[in-house]
Write a structure and sequence with these properties.
One of its GO terms (molecular function) is nucleic acid binding. Helix content is 37%, strand content 16%. The chain has 476 residues and is of the alpha+beta class.
Amino acid sequence: MFREKLKILKNDALVLVESQLERLCVPEIFEIEIIKEYHENFHIGIDLTFSRIARKYFWPKMRFSISEFIRTCLYCQTHKADNHPNIAPTKTFPTPSGPFQKIGFDLIGPLKMTDSGSVYVMTAVDFFSKKCYAVALKSKESKYLLEKFKEILYHNPYFPSAVVMDNAPEFSEIKDHLKKLNIEVCLAPARHPQTNGAVENFNRSLKSRLRACSDNFENWDSNLHKVIHEINSSTHSVTKFSPFTIETGILNPHAAYDSVMRKCFDKIDVNFQEIKTRIDKEKEIRCKKFDNPKFQQYDLGEKVLMRNFRGKFPPFIGPFTVVEKSETALKLKEDDKIGSRIFARHANDIRKFKERKNTSELELNLNDNIIGVEEKYAENNFSICSKQVSDTNFETIFSQKIEKNNEIKSSENLVDSNSSIESDSDSSISGDSVILNRSIREIQLLDEAAEIALSRIEINVLLEFVDECYADMRID
């Protein structure tokens, strides 16, 4: 039996003896202090912390309490890698029903400066026809970007109904101008270029072709218009038509490298619904590839950590509170800060925050309940000791409890020579075990209301040892 493994040393310390190893039995109030001592020096993991503590100490559900403490450690959550990330499934924008309805734009650079002073490239892509646009830039000052963006915007016969863009500060003038034109602005979450994936794919292709046209990006802007025309003349892998064909109906547009000038062109009627079906089918295949049914949605008001992209800082910062959410994007507000910023992040850059329970409040409630039980049992002349043990080691407390029970035994003549209590001669705590058994039996004889109170709290340190170490003697 478990009780046979318990032993009281000369200094009144209660130990558990297993395989010739003596482990000190620890009251609940000291568990957290011991875990702190072993974990917070180097913030080691659960298994290593448990193995080190279990060599010297014992308490019920030790591994569970160690695991919960480490899982809710703020340092470990912000400084250690997330080995089980909560990856959101891929979501897409609704497919437009025709060209000129929705575009996305972005910036490339800084690139190698050309002789004309160009450093950046403004790029844009039509989400239906896949037509590409590119303008060389000398800077990315906000007003200068707006003037260059107008060259793209006013180039087409219709204004788009929506524009997808980053929330970069240099785009502020463009955002204001689009709102004046009643064009919806769709902002991509920070550090998540996949939201504007069509433009990102075009950016990679454009840089690759510019590199092929010039040695080491020398005067790349001189070849920019030629590369854009060649891309828009090529058949797209998804739509099965070139962007020029979708917008103009011309089946074989003139390629930039074609030296033969055609006098007439073959025109067709482009079926936009067929093209939309092809685009939707490609999106379905792509979303299925990156689907994640295990993704756990975040709730409004939930505490989370946000990925930190700055070097020499913890990989995660926070906690933050979720104040707004969509399927895969969140808006976060930093806790305990008046006028704090709102951060927009993709769900892949968020980590669930495990908040530690406030143990001080639990202890306060426990002491309040003990006082109520003391008043309840005052008429029965049964003294209950409150759990005020912060400045006393638990070995002394256990010794005091044994002495207190000896006084109760002598004053009320609890020892009955004809008692049927059988002492276990092989037990290391034979005499004191009898005292513990008799104390528990007296408590069980109290009225029903008192028994309900006892089932909810630990009324003294003596019962704490019994409740935690003598599993077969627990009071329900």
